[in-house]
Amino acid sequence: MNGNKSRDIGRNARLPRLIIFFLLGLIFSFSQPLQSSAAETKDLTLTIIHTNDLHAHEEPFKENGKLIGGWAGVGHVIRELKKEHPDALVLDAGDIFQGSILYTKYHGAVEVHLLNQIGYDAYTIGNHEFDDGSTNLAEQLSKAKFPIVSANLDATAVPKLASLFKPYIIKTVKGQAIAIVGGVTPELEFLATAPHREGVKLKARGEHWYQPIKDVVEKLQSEGYNKIIFLSHCGVACEMDLAENIPGIDAIIGGHSHTRLAKPLMVDHEDGTTTTIVQTGAYGRAVGFLQLTFDEKGVVEPDRTRYKLIDINAQTPQDPDLKAYIDKEAAPFAALTRTVVGEATANFEKKNTLSDSSMGNIVCDAVADCGKDYGVTISMHNRGGIRGLIEKGPINMAEISQILPFDNFVTFATVDGSIVRRAVEHSLAEGMGGHFADVHGLKFAYDNARPSGNRLVFILADDGNGHYKPLDDKSTYKMAMNDYSFTGGENYNFAGAKDVVNSKIRISEALTRYIRKHKEITPRQHDRIVCVRDGLLSVKDRDGKLVLDNASPGARLSIIGGTGLGVSTVYNAMPVPVADGQILKNELVADEKGHFEHSIADLLKDYSNGGHKPDKIWLCIIAYPPKGSSDNTIITTAVPASTPH
User: Fold this and answer.
1) What is the per-residue pLDDT across 433-444, written as a single tens digit (0 to 9) for each?
2) Which of the four, 357, 398, 615, 636, has the lowest number of CB atoms within 10 Å?
């Protein structure tokens, strides 16, 4: 009896120690990465459904005469895909705000509510989320039912916002851990001006802007996570940069640059791994569907990657609950769709050309027209501020509000020519990004192969009487622009401007007034901006020959003549760097070295300006690459030529 009792007591004495060991085991297991033992023996196919740059386009909108987009359709597609793939992750890469009258009225409440209703699993903050300030952003995101991730955003100065997001989250899919890291564009502080950011800043800038993101990824790897997705509002160029510098990222769900990637971009790494990059475009035109297969070691097998974009159009069903909510919130603005302000005789073109665009031109014309009393002869407007197109037919106020959704106002100022030149060079500094500006009262040619800050080949300014003369750095000009650019948005610099007038005229109101005034508007041909290649064309005075060098071998050539430097259009669409451009010769061919020569005397015979044959003309060449070549069409700078003596 006593012996049995002693064994019972000994057994009971061991119980606390067993409990302690059990609890220690639990603590140790929770401190480890959330990985299933299945991860060591099984592969995983991860499905990601994604959107980016929805920009408050909750309602379907017209493009090329057809209705596309709309969040009720986006939501329907996402929900149907989730039924087929219940373990799929639904991700958004930022810029859900700004782009319609619904955002202007409700400041983001509608967008957050809809992401909640659709059922997103994670979202990263875009630069336009700051358009109504950090405090507003915090207020709206406080209602989010989805996690928010951003690894390179420092919001410590706005504690309410800082409390709402984390550098990363961990999601469990089929028993395996998926890390989702977020990040915003390194241009945030140029795109969202300081008053809007209210102290929010980037953790790093410059060449190594991505270091905070890299630190988070490497931390996750050190803890054993081997499936890492980056949710990016950085733009496709920066996403390539990220992929090359942070090989631990398996896939980048991209945004910001509005790039429609019908096929993923794939970056290979020296260790044999890859990074897959995807983007859907913008405005809810499409939903992305990505499937990545990881092997048992957590390495993506590129050959098994599946991807497609699902377009949202008039045939896409709209989920009734989403449509009813959107219709209810949009009801107060129904009168705007019935208020017609004018008529377009044709579609205005898209904004992504290397020259001026008809959409940008009419906005600049409208902004300049507002400043007639001030004496404005020049205006500029950044393309990123134009969010839609005028289509052929009646134009209503709701469409104008969507095309120019920002709460920006017209500013008038008196500036030296050097300030105008500086602004134009800045516009040209980084290609066709959102800061590229269309113009009124200027004509210029630029070479984008030249160093940034020195790309202008020539620039002419309206003298106030419709005559274009070389811009004089020391002369003064009166110009108009939106207050966003004037106050430093996208890093524009108008320091030194005088007699500044901050009007109360919204940019959208300026366009409305202009269309009402003219009643009928027609797209302009390209006659303001032309991209050229400098240094290819010359004149041999002694021989009286026009000489082209370093064109594409076998390039097809057209020779254009004009009365002087300027910008005009040939072939109904091709801008050339001469005034009053005429096609003098075509169907010519460069030799196998890209060389070509032609008699100037012969060209002078073919040129006539109002029946007058001048002794001197300006010549340029359009060189089209031969069929099958990957080279681009180039337009040479113009050179003066006269009959040899």
Assistant:
1) 668 999 999 999
2) 615
Q: Are residues 274 and 396 in the same domain?
A: no
- Closest Cα to residue 457, out of 531, 519, 348? 531
Domain that holds residue 158: 42-328
CB atoms within 10 A of CB 519: 9
- Non-local CB neighbours of 99 within 8 Å, separated by 6+ positions: 54, 55, 56, 57, 128, 283, 387, 402, 405
Residue 11 pLDDT greater than 70, yes or no? no
**Would 24 be classed as within a structural domain?**
no
545-548, strands of its sheet edge to edge: 537-540, 545-548, 596-599
15-47 per-position pLDDT tens digit: 344 333 333 343 333 334 444 333 344 899 999
3-class DSSP state of 238: helix
Reply yes or no on whether the pLDDT at 322 is more than 80. yes
Strand, coil or helix: what is 159?
helix
> Does the pLDDT of residue 532 top 50, yes or no?
yes
Q: Which two tokens stand for residue 46?
A: 């991860």
Note the pTM of the prediction, 2 decimals: 0.80
| pLDDT exceeds cutoff 70 at 542 | no
Q: What is the mean pLDDT of the chain?
A: 90
Closest to 115 measured CA to CA, from 82, 150, 91, 87 = 91
User: Same domain for 94 and 181?
Assistant: yes
Q: Which residues neighbour 365 within 8 Å (Cβ) at sequence distance 6 or greater?
A: 379, 440, 514
Query: 624: domain CATH number?
Result: 2.60.40
What single string gives the DSSP state of each residue in 483-511?
A: HHHHTTGGG---TT-EEEEEEEEEHHHHH
What is the total count of domains within the chain? 3
SS3 139: helix
- Decide: helix, strand or coil at residue 436: coil
Cβ neighbour number for residue 99 with a 10 Å cutoff: 29
